[in-house]
């Protein structure tokens, strides 16, 4: 495994121009092709690339669960959707491009729902969620081995969280599953500062592009099937357009040729430590519903 400490980074002004935009090959000059630890100029880890780390771990059932999420679309990915947010008519809320991305696992009391919960898909598909747990444990094992200090910090937070919100034997509460679309340059919000994020890739059919890139450092990686990258998701990152052999720039798996790039981002949501037990959070949800009905 190479261990490389970068010497340079682009200026804040140059980086600002790229935020929210989809990355292109002009944004990188180093593409990782083998196992590598990449450090920032200050010596802190930027990413650890582990080709084929999940080979033999991802079963057909796991793939089917992740592939089965391709119909879940969201307008809530903000600049990570690769397009600016827009307002519809005179509505107050803003929306970003609709992209095939799903959040599964646990979620804190954020947004409209002021209580902690398993996401709607997770609640409806508990056996499928559990099918993914061995994969998440294998990802956690790699995190422990390659970035032990970040793993330990994240595990400590997971241990002081009610266990119904944590994937057993991992420091993860939540997973974002993306299917074949480019993310605009963004940083992840809501995950633990002292921790580290992880991104696993499953790939089917033939396509070009999709490179995951850290534009501040001009480093990219073309993730292949069962590759894993451990990464500082508080550094700006994004992935390039995915073009299949039909010549289409994809926003979702290609229905014609089957080209598909699934990215599985597993992390710990900082605010989960403040959640009550599942029973307490359910009571909070009922209470909120009753209060809302009473004020109508
Ligand atoms: O799919 C990728 O390579 C990037 C995904 C990502 O950055 C995200 O979901 O926040």
Please sum up the structure shown.
The chain has helices at residues 12-16, 60-67, 120-124, 126-131, 133-146, 148-159, 278-294; strands at residues 2-5, 30-32, 36-39, 45-50, 73-74, 86-87, 94-95, 99-107, 117-118, 174-179, 197-204, 207-209, 212-214, 219-221, 228-231, 238-239, 242-244, 260-267. By secondary structure, it is an alpha+beta fold. The radius of gyration is 19 Å and the shape is globular.
List keywords for this structure.
about 300 residues, alpha+beta, Double-stranded beta-helix, ten-stranded mixed β-sheet, four-stranded mixed β-sheet, 7 helices, binds 2-oxoglutaric acid, oxidoreductase, metal ion binding
Provide a descriptive summary of the structure in words.
With about 300 residues, this protein is α+β, with helices and mostly antiparallel strands. It has a single domain, classed as 4-Layer Sandwich (Double-stranded beta-helix). It is built from seven helices and 18 strands. The protein has helices at about 10-15, 60-65, 120-125, 125-130, 135-145, 150-160, 280-295, and strands at about 1-5, 30, 35-40, 45-50, 75, 85, 95, 100-105, 115-120, 175-180, 195-205, 205-210, 210-215, 220, 230, 240, 240-245, 260-265. Strands 1, 3, 4, 5, 8, 9, 10, 11, 15 and 18 form a ten-stranded mixed β-sheet that branches. Helix 5 (about 135-145) crosses helix 6. The longest helix is centred in the C-terminal third of the chain and has 17 residues, at about 280-295. The N and C termini lie far apart (about 60 Å). The mean pLDDT is about 95. 2-oxoglutaric acid binds near residues 239, 263 and 265.
């Amino acid at each position: 495994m190479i261990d490389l400490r970068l010497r340079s980074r682009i200026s804040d002004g140059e980086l600002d121009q790229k935020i929210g935009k989809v990355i292109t090959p002009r944004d990188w000059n180093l593409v990782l092709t083998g196992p590598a630890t990449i450090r920032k100029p200050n010596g802190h880890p930027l990413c650890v690339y582990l080709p084929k780390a999940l080979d033999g771990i991802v079963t057909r059932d796991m793939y089917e669960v992740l592939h089965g999420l391709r119909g879940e679309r969201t307008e809530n990915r903000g600049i990570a959707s690769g397009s600016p947010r827009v307002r519809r008519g005179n509505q107050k809320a803003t929306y970003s491009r609709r992209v095939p991305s799903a959040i599964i696992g646990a979620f804190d009391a954020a947004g409209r729902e002021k209580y902690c919960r398993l996401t709607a898909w997770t609640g409806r598909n508990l056996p499928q969620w559990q099918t993914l747990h061995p994969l998440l444990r294998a990802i956690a094992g790699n995190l422990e081995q390659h970035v032990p200090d970040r793993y330990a910090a994240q595990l400590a937070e997971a241990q002081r969280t009610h266990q119904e919100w944590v994937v057993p034997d991992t420091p993860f509460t939540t997973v974002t599953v993306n299917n074949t679309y480019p993310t605009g340059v963004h940083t992840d919000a809501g995950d633990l500062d002292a921790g580290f994020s992880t991104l696993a890739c499953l790939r089917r059919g033939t396509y070009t592009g999709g490179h995951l890139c850290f534009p501040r450092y001009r480093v990219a990686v073309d993730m292949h099937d069962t590759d894993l990258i451990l990464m500082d998701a508080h550094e700006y990152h994004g992935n390039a357009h995915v073009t299949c052999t039909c010549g289409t720039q994809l926003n979702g798996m290609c229905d014609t040729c089957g080209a598909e790039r699934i990215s599985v981002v597993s992390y710990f949501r900082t605010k989960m430590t403040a959640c009550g037990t599942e029973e307490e959070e359910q009571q909070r949800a009922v209470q909120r519903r009753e209060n809302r009905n009473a004020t109508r």
